[in-house]
Design goal:
Elements lengths: L7 E3 L4 H10 L4 E4 L5 H6 L7 E4 L9 E4 L2 E5 L4 H6 L1 H6 L1 H8 L4 H6 L2 H5 L12 H7 L26 H6 L5 E6 L2 E6 L19 E8 L5 E8 L10 E9 L5 E9 L6 E2 L14 H14 L10 H20 L1
């Protein structure tokens, strides 16, 4: 049986109280909302904080608000709440679908949108018991000096595996972050880094308070596709979020795609508008987009599934997304 280590559990009622507790116990404290990823990692001794700062009692971080500018979703709002909210399902179907595909129903009711955005990266050589990792000799992400994915690598390439975070990229979401130095807002496209040890531009003493998704333009269609071994619960082997903006006459104005579960951050694909903008979304256009996505996506061997097969599935997911968008 894997047991938790001793720790002290704090229940602040405001964002400022939570930030003060994280600062008071800096280096030995972590925030916890649903705990669906953090608690298993603690049992594996990947994290051993002496203090957990609960975010569940902070009303400011819960709920979904809508105005003319778009939607503001509290970071402690459950994934199930986002997935089933009627307004989100109508206006942001790709985000609702991504949240509905995270793990299983029990964990979606506990897990939060903010927790998914800040989800720790995963790797075959990292998400194991202490006994397993010790026998191997550890890795760059935890306690070791060697990367077992990229031989001789000096930078961790553990996989970004967050579904909702990937869906938020083409939606141009903005993150509201609070810390000891005050509040700041950052676009989600600039939030992630390529370092798998800590793949987000956010200090351990800061909190993600809310996510703002701007209202989408008329004629915009979205799709989210997830590849996993068991559709009931597994982490992704590949994620693809797609946004297509159409002109009033039905031709394509622009295309955005984001892919994840390949490297340490969700990657926004480039050069997708070339030869596509101004044309209808025909089969030949879809195939051109599928080829370009395949060219840009190169999964690593950081999860226990054949990387070449995962890459071969990239154009398949592009085609599936376009079928939904054209429907």
């Amino acid at each position: 049986m894997l047991r938790l280590h001793p720790y002290e559990y704090h229940r602040p009622r405001t964002v400022n109280e939570a930030i003060a507790l994280l600062a008071e116990h800096a280096g030995d404290a972590m925030p916890i909302a649903g705990g669906t990823d953090l608690v298993p990692n603690m049992k594996h001794r990947l994290f051993t904080p002496g203090h957990l700062v609960s975010l569940r009692g902070i009303e400011e971080m819960r709920g979904i608000g809508e105005d003319e500018a778009g939607f503001t979703i509290g970071a402690a709002t459950s994934l199930d709440h986002v997935a089933t909210d009627e307004a989100i399902r109508n206006a942001l179907p790709s985000l609702a679908r991504a949240c509905s595909l995270v793990s299983g129903p029990q964990l979606r009711r506990m897990g939060t949108l903010g927790g998914n955005v800040c989800l720790d990266t995963r790797c075959t050589y990292y998400n194991q018991t202490l006994f397993w990792r010790k026998a191997l000799g550890y890795c760059l992400k935890k306690d070791g000096t060697a990367c077992h994915v990229v031989k001789g690598g000096t930078r961790c390439v553990a996989a970004h595996s967050a579904d909702a975070a990937t869906a938020l990229l083409p939606l141009d979401a903005e993150l509201r972050i609070a810390g000891p130095e005050g509040e700041r807002t950052t676009p989600i496209g600039g939030f992630f880094t390529s370092d798998g040890v800590w793949n987000r531009r956010m200090s351990p003493g800061e909190l993600l308070v809310s996510i703002h998704v701007p209202r989408q333009r008329a004629g915009t269609r979205h799709s989210f596709q997830k590849l996993r071994a068991r559709d009931s619960i597994d982490f992704p082997m590949l994620n693809l979020a797609v946004r297509v903006d159409f002109e009033a006459d039905g031709v394509v104005a622009g295309v955005q795609m984001a892919a994840s579960a390949m490297g340490s951050y969700p990657r926004k694909l480039g050069k997708l508008d070339e030869g596509v903008a101004g044309a209808p979304l025909t089969e030949s256009v879809v195939e051109a987009l599928a080829r370009e996505a395949f060219r840009q996506c190169h999964p690593l061997t950081n999860i226990p599934v054949d990387a070449e097969w995962r890459r071969a599935m990239v154009p398949v997911l592009v085609r599936r997304a376009m079928v939904e968008i054209r429907a």
